[in-house]
Every structure is written in C-alpha cells, then in structure tokens.
Amino acid sequence: MEDESDLSTIMITNLLPVDLNCLLYHLELSIGKTDEAKRRCQAIRKYMWSDKRQFFTDYDFIQKKPTDRVTLAGLFPLWLDISTEDQVKHVAEQTESLFLYDGGLVTTIAKQSSQQWDYPNGWAPLQFITYRSLLRYPQYKKLAQTIRQRWMNLNERVFVETGKMMEKYDVVNIDKLASGGEYQVQEGFGWTNGVYLEMLHDHISEIRSLT
Fold it and tell me: Which of 46, 101, 96 is nearest to 70 (CA)?
C-alpha cells in the first residue's frame, strides 16, 4: 500500500513480487528451463535489490524501481541461492536489526498498518523460510537458531495458556494474542503445527549430533 494505514491505496497490480519470481526460478530449474532460470536469477539480483534498503524487495514496474517496503519475502533469494555473498550479508544484518523480536520475526515493519500480515504479527511460513535461508550460511547459523528458539518458545507459551496452536502470533508483545485483519485469529493451524514440528526435529538432531 502506498499509505500503509489505508487499504484502498493497495498497489499490488504495479508490482513484480520477489518471492513469486524466486519460486518461478526454482520451477524453471526443476523442469529443465535453465536458460530462463538464469535470466530470471540475473533479473532478481538486478531489479529486486534495493541499494537504498540493502534488501530484496518487490519491483514497481510503473515507477521502474524497487519498492521501499521491506518484508520477509526478501529472504526467498537466500533460500533458493539466488543472492550474491554481499547481498546475503546485508539481508542477514537487516533481518536481525529490523525484524527480530522476543517472539520471533515480524513479517513486515509497517507499524501504521492494521492488516494481519503486518507488524506486530509473525506467521509460521515466513519464520521457516527465513530460518532455513539463514541456516544455509554457517556464519548465520546462530541467528537462525535464535529465530527458531524464540518462535518455538512463543508457540509453546501460547499453547500452555490456551491449549491451542494459532494461525499467527504477536511476536512483539508476547503476552498478547495476535490481532488485525478481517477476521478473528484462527486456531489449530496446520502450517504452525508443521513448522513447529520441523524446527523441533532440527533442534533434536542438533542435540543428538553433540552426543
């Protein structure tokens, strides 16, 4: 949205999403379209990298420049090995300084928005993408583990209090349930369960590797 507090200013039809293009790159590789994948990889690095924000963002093809909106979608190039070494460094640093809170990662830093995907909420799929993206790089393993532990701790805390796993969580105010959006917070959510179990598996595997 041009105005993060006004849903009517949504501009999605002007944007080329960085996460979608990364997934298309992966699909092209998977079906043997290597030339197309190579061109897409180069385009993502060139057009979806914001020098101003030092982060991958969506590309506004009307304004002909990357947007200023940083979100965890900017981790997809790391997850799929598209980013350069220098880009990885900057994205990791920005992830820690802008997105990481006591309960894990906020999806966006849009603090004036009341939409459910924005601050202060965190969502399991993007916790997982970010966690696994950073885990690919040994120098950011500790940061990845911190993200994992904070997210799992919040899941467990809310489960103890409510007996439920939630669709989304308030990762900033960990004593509160998440809010925002057009409907009430959904309970017992599949992707939260799946991400928690996958992170737990990683945690147990790390412990076993030390014995």
Answer: 96
Check the CA dihedral 68-71-72-76 and report its sign. negative
What is the pLDDT of the chain when averaged over all its residues?
A: 92
Using alpha carbons, select from 12, 80, 67, 14 the residue that is nearest to residue 41. Answer: 80
Domains with residue ranges and CATH for the chain: 7-209 (1.50.10.10)
Distances (CA, A) of 131 to 1, 98, 140: 27, 15, 10
Helix 18-30 / helix 34-47 crossing angle, nearest 10 deg:
160
Q: 40-67 pLDDT, tens per residue?
A: 999 999 999 999 999 999 999 999 999 9
Helix 190-209 with 124-135: angle, nearest 10 deg: 30
Q: How far apart are CA 172 and CA 105, in angstroms?
A: 8
Dig out the tokens for 108 from the structure. 């966006």
